What we know:
- By secondary structure, chain A is an alpha/beta fold.
- Chain A has helices at residues 52-59, 87-93, 105-108, 115-126, 131-144, 150-153, 163-175, 193-210, 221-227, 245-250, 255-263, 303-307, 329-334, and strands spanning 8-21, 24-37, 41-45, 68-77, 80-81, 98-101, 181-185, 213-218, 230-235, 238-244, 313-316, 319-321.
- Chain A has a domain at 229-335.
- In chain A, a hairpin with a 2-residue loop joins β9 and β10 (238-244).
- The longest helix of chain A has 18 residues, at 193-210.
- The radius of gyration of chain A is 21 Å and the shape is globular.
- Chain B has 330 residues and is an alpha/beta fold.
- Helix content of chain B is 29%, strand content 25%.
- Chain B contains ten helices and twelve strands.
- Chain B is globular.
- Chain A binds chain B through residues 47-48, 162-165, 192-198, 200-201, 219-226, 245-246, 249, 259-261, 263-268, 271-272, 274-279, 281-282, and chain B through 55-56, 162, 164, 192-198, 200-201, 204, 219, 221-223, 225-226, 246, 249, 259-272, 277, 279-281, 283-284.
Amino acid sequence: xxxxxxxxxxxxxxxKTVFKxxxxxxxxxxxxxxxxxxxxxxxxxxxxxxGKSVTMMSLIGLLPSPPAEVRNGTVMFEDQDLLTATDEQxxxxxxxxxxxxxxxxxxxxxxxxxxxxxxxxPLRKHMGMNKSAAxxxxxxxxxxxxxxxxxxRLKDYPHQFSGGMRQRVMIAIALxxxxxxxxxxxxxxxxxxxxxxxxxxxxxxxxxKLGMAVVWITHDLGVIAGIADRVLVMYGGQVVEHAxxxxxxxxxxxxxxxxxxxxxxxxxxxxxxxxxVIEGQPPILGAPPSSCPFRPRCARAIARCEVENPLREPVxxxxxxxxxxxxxATEAQNA
Amino acid sequence: xxxxxxxNKLVSVSGLKMYFPIHTGLMQRHTGDVKAVxxxxxxxxxxxxxxxxGESGCGKSTCGRAVLRLYEPTEGSINMGGxxxxxxxxxxxxxxxxxMQMVFQDPQASLxxxxxxxxxxxxxxxxHTDLKREDRLARIYELMDAVxxxxxxxxxxxxxxxxxxxxxxxxARALALNPKFIVxxxxxxxxxxxxxxxxxxxxxxxxxxxxxxxxxISHDLSMVRHIADRVAVMYLGKIVELAPRDGLYDDxxxxxxxxLLSAVPEPxxxxxxxxxxxxxxxxxxxxxxxxxxxxxCTRCPQVLDRCRSEEPEFxxxxxxxxxxCHRLNE
Lengths: 335, 330
């Protein structure tokens, strides 16, 4: 864990993203704030539609506009607000100082170019390397992510790699220009567990070696428990809880986090006779929230939840929660 | 099997092989086979849930489909409730269809977007029964109640439902003809965590209510631990281990099962510090060109010389527990 003195490399405040559709607006991200310190791994968990990917895409202007519109907020990265930056300035940041790894390695690699070309492209664009220097660096990168026989494989096309190897290539591309921040959007979701274990080990290893900050988006609490330093829990386009990883798993305060931890079965330890469920469906965000988005599914909802959207309030050091009626520590242990 | 001797075998599969031919060259000659399922044998007892786990490409879905005769198996016998269907013709299979049904992985792709819920759930009734229109509608409502769908939605189309609700439609369709045996092929893989639990609980309730037998295919080891009574682990077209649930999770015998279980990340940060993980190197070999000897010998951390030349036999290592590994024969 890092101390409070380390400066943030990325500071997001009050981010708000709205999609305009024919049926009206969809408020996908509502007032999301977080910061990221050098060398730390921030896990972002949430179900599909909770706004975790859209948040990260909005940061670096990867959402097509229209329909997306970033309404509000600031994203400070190295003394520059990325939301007001020009396209050219953004291009200089993307792929160079902020790397991105997407969920599906098959659709994010270009099938008509060989892997070597795709690896060398950012090196030549951003770092101004010539062809031979870029090739040398590309081989290094493939070796770094554990692809055997790297020099020969540069000429191979994405379809000649297996799923796990393709994801390694994606990670190599994202790391090509020594980024300060790496954003990984569900990088292991499309992979098998044994391959996922390999990628997780690789990421831990790389982070220690290269000292970059990582944002890791996932819906898998097991992955988060193994890899993150701090965790943001998102629901309905908002951050509902934020805590250091141990604190979050030991002492979840938001009813959603608490329920989420209960619904996941385990491969070890006690086997529950029946799974706990969160009844109902995630919300559709047609308007800015005027009440707590989790309220219809929440067992602990009180009258106030109907009329007011809770703000994130600190409960202990580095732990904050957006709830009027949080689960207390003793209750969490008894449950 | 000892502890199951008093129970009825509902489904009995032996020596099932499902090869897909590879044709290459100008003459499209048959040059090899993808051995998707290669000599698999197992029994499923009445009222139980057999979990079938493995990584993608290991042949678990093909196995499930071959058991229901959605494919033409290359070899092997399938005994379904006393009837041998391994070599049956489509005409002979038709009267067997109400007995065995399937729930598919992707509820989006397995529901016809141009049919309403009532059409979808009613189609098997139309094909296999001679119910009158009103009776059929009554049965459709009954099924919708059973899976927790509001009757008022009977005349809506699949796109109007969420993923979890669509999966409920698929389950209602599978239940329409009062089957005994249902193959659930990754029924929760496409759903969110909180919705997964809802669907799994529904499947368990229906099993109790209608006395169903499931073959539950999944790559999610923790969910299989929850729902299955016995678990079969597949690797590269073969079952490497088959055991009662608690035995398999507490004391896995086969090195592949051990590695697979240790690769599942636990939702508990403290466990991650102490856990000793077996991380497999490399990828699964191609099923068109499996390695000599044991299929797992290229990645096995405990490999012996023998494993590279001789294929281990799938045998009973302890009462009720089967595994295929040379290490266990010593």
